[in-house]
Each structure stands twice: as structure tokens, then as C-alpha cells.
Specification:
Elements (H helix, E strand, L loop, with lengths): L2 E7 L3 E8 L4 E8 L4 H13 L13 E5 L11 E2 L2 H12 L5 E5 L4 E6 L5 E7 L7 H10 L4 H7 L14 H13 L4 H23 L5 E4 L6 H11 L3 E2 L8 H16 L1
Parallel strand pairs: 1-4, 4-5, 6-9, 9-10
Antiparallel strand pairs: 1-2, 2-3, 6-7, 7-8
Helix pairs in contact: 2-8, 3-5, 6-7
Length: 264
């Protein structure tokens, strides 16, 4: 049996997926990224390799592809492919009916439309500001003195929405702290934050040519409050993936590795 790997070294988390030659997921790992992307990749790869009895090291993989922020730093990688292409392929092999993605990473937001073969049809990216990204949500959770999971579900309790006008993460955090200090309902402030991010996602999705069948990828895809806000803004239901949405980049890289490895 041959095995194929994908390692997605992101700015916040590093993910690794190993597939067998039939495309079955044999191992997957998600870790907080280290400062050194090489170390992040090595740790994730070693942990994934340990889950496959027949493998002793990453060098035994038939083909390995690096992706993400640190894609050039993945040890033993045969090549690297952009995370945009890998997210598209990961979603395609998970659910071929999905034709568009909103990917919310640690430092950027992307809108991606997928062609019928899993390649990227078009994309739009906002990488000049942290607003609406994973870093933004970390700042908001800190302002609320909550964990990210607690903050993610807080807005679901809101009966009304208090709009957040600031676009910058720093200014938005100050605005939120002021509203909390004024005694405004925290769930309504949270709903305003989710709506503001959803509107930013809407812009990226429309620029990319989003279809009626859309899903979320990245760690923020697990934010139920954001998902509901995006459904409200886009006026369509967001499709849930059967596989962890945070793994889509690594899964897509592993699938590309499988295709390339088997064709050699």
C-alpha cells in the first residue's frame, strides 16, 4: 500500500493528513503552530506518521505536498501548492456538490469558487487587515474574557444586534470594550461582531463568484454564531462538511499528492 501526505503549515495552526492510495484518510493531526514553521511541520508529520503502522518516517510517503503560510518549509515535501488550490480540492473530495468556499484563516479571509474537477475557478482574498480573521476573533474573545468556543456561541442567544462600526481590529476591540463597559447586553454585542464579519465574508464570496452551494473552511468554520450570521447575510444555507473543516487545506494537499504520486 502506498501513502500520500499533505501538510498545511498555517500562521495559527498546522494540519497534516495522510491518505492511502484509495483516498481513505489514514491519519490527521491539528496542532498550534510554532514560531518556526519547520518545527511545526516536523511535529505534525511525525504525529501523523505514528498513526500509520506501516510508516516509520515522512520519507516513506510516496508523495508529500506542503501548503499554507509555511508551505516552503515542509521537510521532505516533493512540492508545494497554494492553500487556495488545496482548500478547493479538499472540499471537492469531501463534497463534490459544493461549488464555493469562504475560508477564514488566522490572518486572512478568502472567497473561492470551485470548478467541476476541484480546481479553483476564481478567488478573492482580503489579506491587508486582520478584521474578520482568526486573530480578530481571538482579540474579541479576550475583550469578553471568554474562550473562543464560549464567544462563538454567545451571539446565538441574542434577541437584537448592536452594530459594530469599526473595521479595524484595534478600533473594534476598543469599541467592544466601551459597549461592555456601558452595560450593553454582551450577546447583542457579540451578534454585532458576527454580523460585521459576515458582511466582510459576503464581499469576498461575491467577488469570487460564490454559488448557491457554499461551505466554510478554516478554524472559524466551527464558529456557529458566524455561520448563522453568514447564512443571514448571504440568504442561503451554509453546507456542513462531513470532515473537520480545519483540515481542508491538508486534505486537499494530500489528495493532490495522491493524484501526482499514482500518475508517476
Amino acid at each position: 500500500m502506498k501513502y500520500f501526505g499533505g501538510c498545511d503549515v498555517g500562521s495559527t495552526y498546522t494540519k497534516c493528513v495522510i491518505l492511502d492510495e484509495n483516498g481513505k484518510i489514514m491519519a490527521h493531526v491539528t496542532n498550534k503552530s510554532k514560531i518556526n514553521p519547520v518545527a511545526s511541520a516536523e511535529i505534525a508529520l511525525n504525529q501523523a506518521i505514528a498513526q500509520v503502522e506501516e510508516l516509520q518516517s515522512a520519507q516513506e510517503l510516496s508523495y508529500l505536498i506542503g501548503t499554507g503560510y509555511g508551505r516552503n518549509k515542509v521537510p521532505f515535501a516533493d512540492e508545494n501548492i497554494s492553500e487556495i488550490s488545496c482548500h478547493a480540492m479538499g472540499v471537492h473530495v469531501t463534497n463534490p456538490d459544493v461549488k464555493a468556499i469562504i475560508d477564514i484563516g488566522g490572518q486572512d479571509v478568502k472567497g473561492i469558487s470551485i470548478d467541476k474537477d476541484g480546481t479553483v475557478k476564481n478567488f478573492a482574498m482580503n489579506d491587508k487587515c486582520a478584521a474578520g480573521t482568526g486573530r480578530f476573533y481571538e482579540a474579541m474573545a479576550n475583550a469578553f474574557e471568554m474562550s473562543l468556543p464560549e464567544f462563538s456561541s454567545l451571539s446565538l442567544k441574542a434577541k437584537n444586534v448592536i452594530p459594530i462600526t469599526a473595521q479595524c481590529t484595534v478600533f473594534a476591540e476598543s469599541e467592544v470594550i466601551s459597549l461592555v463597559g456601558e452595560g450593553k447586553p454582551m450577546e447583542e454585542i457579540a451578534a454585532g461582531i458576527q454580523l460585521a464579519v459576515a458582511k466582510r465574508c459576503f464581499v469576498m464570496a461575491k467577488k469570487a463568484g460564490a454559488a448557491d452551494s457554499i461551505t466554510l473552511t478554516g478554524g472559524c468554520a466551527k464558529n456557529e454564531g458566524l455561520k448563522k450570521a453568514i447564512e443571514k447575510v448571504l440568504k442561503i444555507k451554509v453546507i456542513d462538511l462531513a470532515i473537520d473543516p480545519q483540515l481542508m487545506g491538508a486534505l486537499g494537499a494530500a489528495e493532490y499528492a495522491r493524484q501526482k504520486g499514482l500518475s508517476r
